[in-house]
Amino acid sequence: MQLNLSKSVYQLGCLLLIILWATTAASKLGNLNQFKTELAKQVFSERFTAWLLIAVPASEMIAATLLAFSKTRLYGLIASLLLITAFTLYIAMVLAGYFNKVPCSCGGVLKWLGWKAHLVFNLVFTAITLITLIIHLKREVRDKE
């Protein structure tokens, strides 16, 4: 029973992360001009903003793709943890008043959330990512024994 629950949680975690990254990347790429405009309103330099315009949706698509295949899933989980942690830290900095401008350049339904709700959403996905990664690593150790 424990193995089946663990397997189900693992599969659901991977699926939720694939959906998260694929939809947010698709939203940004589907309206690249709007994403570019929103990024330009951020506090970042123009050069860094130009880099983010490509790097953010590309990273999200890469993470989703890596998660889709069992041989690359560990890398997808690591990429997911790095991405969700970076986005969560940014939101925490926004809520702490670190930035004087705080437009949201998020994709999908996330752009309709307030900052506090977005932080909660990200914390939930951080937990999902960590749980899924831990299950993955435990399975790797078990399979090597």
TrEMBL record:
<dbReference type="InterPro" id="IPR009908">
    <property type="entry name" value="Methylamine_util_MauE"/>
</dbReference>
<keyword id="KW-0812">Transmembrane</keyword>
<feature type="domain" description="Methylamine utilisation protein MauE">
    <location>
        <begin position="9"/>
        <end position="134"/>
    </location>
</feature>
<feature type="transmembrane region" description="Helical">
    <location>
        <begin position="76"/>
        <end position="99"/>
    </location>
</feature>
<dbReference type="Pfam" id="PF07291">
    <property type="entry name" value="MauE"/>
</dbReference>
<feature type="transmembrane region" description="Helical">
    <location>
        <begin position="119"/>
        <end position="137"/>
    </location>
</feature>
<keyword id="KW-1133">Transmembrane helix</keyword>
<keyword id="KW-0472">Membrane</keyword>
<feature type="transmembrane region" description="Helical">
    <location>
        <begin position="50"/>
        <end position="69"/>
    </location>
</feature>
<dbReference type="GO" id="GO:0030416">
    <property type="term" value="P:methylamine metabolic process"/>
</dbReference>
<protein>
    <recommendedName>
        <fullName>Methylamine utilisation protein MauE domain-containing protein</fullName>
    </recommendedName>
</protein>
<dbReference type="GO" id="GO:0016020">
    <property type="term" value="C:membrane"/>
</dbReference>
